[in-house]
Amino acid sequence: MPAERLQKILARAGYASRRQAEAVIAAGRVTVNGAPAILGARADIDTDRIEVDGKPIRVDEADVTILLHKPTGFVVTAEDERGRRTVYDLLPGAPAHLRYVGRLDRDTSGLLLLSTDGELAHRLTHPRYEVPKTYEATVEGAVPAEALTRLRLGVQLDDDVTTAPAEVTRTGGDAHETRVRLVIHEGHNRQVRRMFEAVGHRVTRLIRTRIGPLSLDGLPLGASRNVTPEELNALRALVGLEQRSERRLPSG
């Protein structure tokens, strides 16, 4: 394989985005064949020994990106100090350095992407790329039209962050609850729940159904599958990356 820039190799290994990899190299944490690496250095993963913090990195021939239908009750983290179940418990045999792409809180279910491609994961979560994420929310009470208009325009959250405009559609409900579909293009912590709290309503059920061109599309709760080559290409095009072939991971 031809030599590549070192930060690109680190991103492909799942350690960081290319920009973050530059900081790792600049900090002196990377060596190539035993010598400290410098920014702009190139290496060949087939012939050079690349180490981060003294440990060899592993770059698979192709990256892995999978789609998980996360149930409630699972936390999105690699390890939980409180001993709670994590999404990785649903992915036995997953590749090393498989990182989650954004988060869903413990009480939210739905579509979660995980990938060994650090640059793809970085871009899918960076607000610059405005990747659309679709949620179906059930909310306490009858939400008035004025509140939905506020959500569409953007609301101030409890940490003084103002959300970007959202697509908001009432999909059903009665005097006791309202069902709403939201499409947002950012990813503040617990954003959808906090948006409704800002207009005086509590979310009782929340599921993420889409990220960009990907949807749950009948995937059972708790199950996972590989993204298809076509889906991968669509994801990469969405965030300005070149198309790439994808290695398969057995479905869960």
Provide a short characterization of the protein structure.
This protein has 252 residues and is an alpha+beta fold.
Structural features, described:
- The chain has 252 residues and is α+β, with helices and mostly antiparallel strands.
- It has 3 domains: 4-56, RNA-binding S4 domain (Structural Genomics Hypothetical 15.5 Kd Protein In mrcA-pckA Intergenic Region, Chain A), CATH 3.10.290.10; 65-128 and 213-238, Alpha-Beta Plaits; 132-211, Alpha-L RNA-binding motif (Alpha-Beta Plaits, 2-Layer Sandwich).
- It is built from 6 helices and 15 strands.
- The chain has helices spanning 6-12, 18-26, 118-125, 145-153, 191-198, 229-238; strands at 4-5, 30-32, 35-36, 42-43, 50-52, 55-56, 65-70, 99-101, 109-115, 133-140, 167-173, 177-184, 203-211, 214-215, 224-226.
- The strands form 3 sheets. Strands 7, 8, 9, 10, 11, 12, 13, 14 and 15 form a 9-stranded mixed beta sheet that branches. Strands 3-2-5-6 form a 4-stranded antiparallel beta sheet.
- Helix 1 (6-12) crosses helix 2.
- The longest helix is centred in the last third of the chain and has 10 residues, at 229-238.
- The model is unreliable at 246-252 (pLDDT under 50).
